[in-house]
Amino acid sequence: MAKDLTESSHDRQNILNNRYALQQAEQHLGLGGMEFDGEMVFTKAQVVTLFEVTDRTIERYLASHEDELKSNGYRVLKGKILKKFKEINNGTDINDGTKTSVLGVFSSRAVLNIGMLLTDSEPARQLRSRLLDIVLDVMAERAGGHTKFINQRDENYLVSALQEENYRRQFTDALDNYVEGNHWKYARFTNLIYQSIFRENAAEYKKVLNLAVKTNIRETLYSEILNLIASYESGIAHELEQASYAQGRKLTQREAESLFASFEQHPLFKPLILDARTKMASRDLCFRDALHEKLEAYIQSVPEADFERFLGEKSRSLEEQLSDPETLAVLKRLKDR
C-alpha cells in the first residue's frame, strides 16, 4: 500500500529504526555533512540548502516535531561542545540563524527524518521516494524475497511452532473427548481463539496477508503469537476436561462456547493480548505491508531490535535453521518430551 511519510510517524520511524536501510541510504543518497563526534552532522543552514526551503520552515518543523527530531539525533550544541565543533569545522558558516552561543545540528538520521516531514520541498519528495525504494530492496534482499514468512527467520520460531503443535494436539483431543459435535467444531473453536487474540478469523487473516487458501496460518505467525495460542489451547483443554467431568458427560457446543467466553476474560491474558496485537499489527504493516484494520489502533513503530531479529545477522531462513545440528538437537529434545 502507498505510504505517506509526511503523515505517518510510524512509517517514518520504521525506516529510521532499520539500520540496514539507513546504511544503504547513506551510501546512495550522498547527503554530505561534517564529521563530528564520530558521525556526520549538518547545520540548519546546510539543511536549508539541501532541501531548498527557508530557515523559517526548518524552525517551524523543529517546533512542531521537536520530540521526534530530538529522538533521531537533532541536538543543540553549546559551551565546550560547541567550542570543539567550531575548532574542528573552522571556516564553516555555522551562524545559521541562532545565537553564536548555541547551535542546532542534525545527525544524518535527523536529516532523513526532516526530509520525510517537509511537504513543500521537491528534494524532500525525491528523498522520500528513494528511501521507500531502498527499504523495499533491503527488505527483499535480507529476507530472501519471502516477507510472507519473515516470521520464520526469528531464531525462536521453530521452538514456538513445535511447542504450539504439541498443545494443539491436547486441544483437539479435548474437543474430541469432552465436547459433542462433528468435525466442524475444530475450526469453530480455533477461530474463537484467533478472534480473541487478534480479532480475525482464519479467512479474514488469510485475506489480510493475501495467503493461499491451503496455507497453514501458523506458518506465518510470530513466535509470541504462537506462544499465546498455545497458552489458550492448553488452558481451554484443561477447562473442557474439568467441566466435562463435573457434568459426568460431554459438553454441548453451546456449553463449551460459554466456557471459552469466560476463559478468555481472565485478567492473565490482558497484557499478553495487548502485546500480541501490537506486535502483529506493527510488524505486519512494516515487514509485510499488510494492514490489519481491526488492529489499526495497536500499530506502533517497530523497534530496532525487531529489525535485527528478522533481518539481522542472527536471522536465518527456515531451511538454514533446519540444517543446523544444534537446532535439530533442540527440536528433538522438545519432540521427545
Summed up:
By secondary structure, the protein is mainly alpha-helical. It is built from 17 helices and four strands.
What would you say this structure looks like, in words?
The longest helix is centred in the C-terminal third of the chain and has 25 residues, at 223-247. This protein is mostly helical and 337 residues long. It has helices at 9-16, 19-29, 44-51, 55-64, 66-71, 79-88, 108-115, 122-142, 157-178, 184-198, 202-209, 223-247, 253-263, 269-287, 304-311, 318-322, 325-335; strands spanning 34-36, 39-43, 75-78, 102-107. Strands 1-2-4-3 form a 4-stranded antiparallel sheet. Helices cover 61% and strands 5% of the residues. It has 17 helices and 4 strands. The radius of gyration is 26 Å and the shape is elongated.
User: Whole-Å distance between the termini?
Assistant: 44 Å
Biggest pleated sheet = 4 strands, antiparallel
Unreliable sequence segments: none
Order of helices and strands: HHEEHHHEHEHHHHHHHHHHH
Work out the helix count: 17
Helix/strand structural class = mainly alpha
Strands of the largest sheet, in order across it?
A: 1-2-4-3
Overall mean pLDDT? 90
Q: What is the helix fraction of residues, given as a range?
A: 55-70%
Quaternary structure state of the chains depicted: single chain
Rough outline: elongated
- Report the strand count: 4
Compute the CA-based radius of gyration: 26 Å
Strand content: 5-15%
Provide the number of structural domains.
Answer: 2
